[in-house]
Amino acid sequence: xxxxxxxxxxxxxxxxxxxxxxxxxxxxxxxxxxxxxxxxxxxxxxxxxxxxxxxxxxxxxxxxxxxxxxxxxxxxxxxxxxxxxxxxxxxxxxxxxxxxxxxxxxxxxxxxxxxxxxxxxxxxxxxxxxxxxxxxxxxxxxxxxxxxxxxxxxxxxxxxxxxxxxxxxxxxxxxxxxx
Length: 179
Prior knowledge:
Blueprint: H1 2-178
């Protein structure tokens, strides 16, 4: 019995030892697993923090780029608007200059037309006075020629009368001398 009791006690000691070893193994395994889990959690948190940092940097970079592009877009828009305003102002100024030139040209045309009309009227009056003068001269010449013609006819008549008289005197003398 003592032998059995010793064997039992050995078995109990062995089973306690096994249980103790199993508990030690379980506790060591649990500690190792917990350490691994903690290391994994720390690693994951470090990875997440690193990823958050990279995302933050990327977001800041994107925001800077967006702001830069927005500023460039605004600058380009302002430049285009300024250029457009300048172009409109230049076009309006050109229109105004052209209208002024057209007005000046119209005024010049009116002055030239008025001058031409005045000259034409002067020329018409000169021509009319010359025509009247020519008409008076023609009438004068006609009168003078009529006068000359009358004078010439009068002389011719006188010459005929003288001839007739002479010829009648000659005839009388001849009839007187023949008779």
